[in-house]
Every structure is written in structure tokens, then in C-alpha cells.
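Hey, can you fold this?
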Amino acid sequence: MSSPLHIPDRRLFIASAAGIIASHALPFWTVKGRMADELTKTPAQTEGPFYPNKLPLDTDNDLIVINDNLTPGVGEITHLTGKVLDAKGNPVNNAVVEIWQCDAKGVYLHTDDSGKKKDKQDKNFQGFGRFVTGKSGEYYFRTIKPVPYPGRTPHIHFKIKKGRKELLTTQLYVKDDPGNPKDFIWNGVKDAKQKAAITVDFAKLKESKLGERAANFVIVLGVTPAE
């Protein structure tokens, strides 16, 4: 867990997101023709029981700070970037990317969980966020490195929507986490390439004095949004 950190001006935070995305994104924006056939489709996974049943007032892409609170959420700050591509490798713009995860104390933003753990819950962690993808399909969140939840390895839930359609629900895992081999949902992905695609490195940023991390997760849909 990290120590208290300096909270940057929200406008500066948003402006810096583009630079972080550019420096940690994978080197392709669009994949066409034969290479598109070689893309590894992101496997669908269970939504789980704790998709927020009461959304917070703040649903932006900065899960560390709720509204204009001065006290940040606890955890290893992570800049989570990526892209959403369709089945042909084209970027999907104007898609809504939602993420949700437990806080650093292992509590979800759901009354069936947080209601039982009020004294334990990190009230300064947003727990849920949204981002609308840009022209190149990119998304960006500032969150925390996921932690274990009872019976589960560290993970972040993802849901991709466009218009009224839900295109994919999946989960993201931490590369080389010792809990992965014992996790029944992670092990439920039998294809090695698909398992590797949802298991990414949460690397420390060398230039960060706060011990921040960066992770990049490219999501490849099994369908095109029109379908």
C-alpha cells in the first residue's frame, strides 16, 4: 500500500493522460487483413456478484479521488491504459469502458459486501469508473493495483458497452501473481493465448517517486459493434 500522495490538479491529470497512454500503449492502432485473423480475442468472463448495485455520484476515470476530496484512496497507484478493438482489429471509438474492483482492504462497492464491512471499507476509493474511448479506441484510468479478495486472485472487472449493447464482460489479472494458478476463474480460460492476453504486467514507473505503476490491456472484441 502506498503512503499518502499529492493530489494533482484535476485538469492537469486529464491533460497528462494522453502522454501516459502514448508511452505505454501497444504499437498498433489498426490491424487489417491476414493479421486480423491472428488477433487473440479477449475471453468473456463472469460479471461476478459485485457489479455496483448503487453507482457512486462520481463515476469518472480517476478512482483514486472521489469528487474533490483531498484524501486519496489507499493502494499502489496504477495508470491503466489500453485500447478497444473490434474482431477485425479496427479501433472502437465512443465505446464505454467500465471497470470495478475491490479497494485495498478487499471491499467492493456493493451493499452485499460493503454493507457487512463498513468499518473496513476505504471510503476514499471510488471502486468504479467509466471512460469513453477516443478515435483510436484508447481508454485511461487511474486506479490501484488490484489486491486479493477472499477466494480470488487480484483482478479488475471490465465491461464494454456501445449504445444499448453490452459487447463484452471480462476480467484483468496481474502477471506472475502467485494467486493466479489457484484461481478458478483465471484457470477457466483454457486457451494459453487468451489467458496471456488478460494477464498483464503492472510495472513500476521508474520516474515516479510515489511507486506508481502502469499496466496496458488491449481488448479485442469477438464481434464488431454493428453485429
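Oh, and this one too while you're at it.
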Amino acid sequence: MADDPTSHPQPPMDTHPIEPPGHTSEMSQQPDHGEHSYKGSGRLLGRAAIITGADSGIGRAVAIAFAREGADVLISYLNEHEDAEQTAHWVRDAGRRPVLMPGDISEQGHCREVVQRAVAEFGRLDILVNNAAMQRTHEDISEISAEEWDKTFRTNIYSQFFLCQAAVPHMKPGAAIVNTTSINAKNPSPQLLAYATTKGAIANFTAGLAGMVASKGIRVNAVAPGPIWTPLIPSTMPQEKAESFGEDTPLGRAGQPAELAGAYVLLASDLGSYMTGAVIPVTGGRPML
């Protein structure tokens, strides 16, 4: 039977504030990462992937899906060790090999180390998923410090440049890069000014890089999530907004991380062989104008 898109958890969400960047175990209402629902079919068999921000949220859902499709996964994350171990558990459960790599992807040196580690551990690099991000909520531009603005850009977009620059020389024809942008790239939330600005940059970076590496046989695409229920939400939004998160979509609810995994599999696999420079919206019906 087909999944009813209105059957998932509805607002108000059961939530309470947690400290950023947030840990899954601290969330009152746990996200669905596809632990008990995603079924693989070998679409990524024998491939090796790096996924940033793979400790929780969308990154964990993608790691689970990739592993069940047959890929080994380097789990890149900041310092959320307990969450990252949970992701590694599910990768192992799928019969694939996880490699844990904590550290700050806003630093170019660490990004180079991530790529070097993946190549050393797996002997190859077929897929890079640039997913990690930071966001903060503000009501006035005066509240945003230069340090926060810089850190948001370094985490969200500089890291993608750093990682792609390090990864491309190791990638062979058929490899894929998948970036996480956002509905904020086209419809920016004023309260997420720094975050939304970086997401617009990611969409442009994706299109430009796709043209630059097409002759190498490397595809570059992006997924644009709408409101997705992850630790980022209760850790960076006022409680009243977290409780009503997603209710303004046509589907009337936030998406679950598991509901994005298929888009990443499409773009990383041969199913998307004629797709490059594309952005796939997964927004609960909110248009990207």
C-alpha cells in the first residue's frame, strides 16, 4: 500500500528547547530516519561515500539509505559522538562499513583530511554528500555578529568548496556530488538571514560546478528540503515556532528525514545519470519560486 503523505506526525510537535547544534537523544519527538522502513535494492553496490552532518537528521537518513543500497560510508560530523555512533550502527546493520570522522568542516585542512581518510579507508571515492549546516534565528540584523555570519558561511558553503576541491581529483567518471541547499535558497526566511543566504549560494555553486566538472563525467546536483524535523529545529528556533513547524505547507506538517533519502539515492545512483546541475525540491508542497 502506498504511503499516505498526511499520515506522518502532525503539528503541534512535542518539543522543548535544546542547546545547538542539538542531539537526537534530546528530542522529545524522535525523527524517522528510515531505520525500519527504507528498503535497499543495490543501486550503490560497492561504492564509497562521504556524508557530512551524517550523525543525525537528513545526514543519518541518507547514510542509512546509502548503506542499504550497498555503499560504505564515511560519517563526517562535528562532535556529536553518540549520534554518530548510532548512524554507524545502522550502516553496520546493513552489512556495510562505516568510518567515523569528527571535526570542523569549516576548516580547509580538516576537509582535506576527510577526503584523504575516505580514500585511504575505502580505496576509492564515488559519492560526496555536502549536507552539514548551521543556522541561528534572529529578529533583527543587529543581532547577527560578524563572527556568526562568518561561521555560517564557512560551515555551509566554504566547506562545500573545500570538500569538492579535495574530492574531485579522486573521482572517476560516474561519480556524483550531492549538495543540500534549501527552500530558503528561493524563499528566504527573514529570521534565518545568514543561513538562507548561504543556501542561495549553494544552489549557484551546484549549477556552476556541474558545468565545470561535466567533462570529467562527474555529476553535481542538489536537494532542497523544506521544513524537516531534525535536531536543528528545537536547538535553533523559538519553542512556539518549533511546535508549529511545517504547518504552513500544503501537506500541513514537517517532513521526516527518511522522506528525503530517496532523492539523494536518485542523484547519487545511475537512476540520475542524465541529471546534473539540478535542484530537487522536497518541500511538502511549498513551491520554490
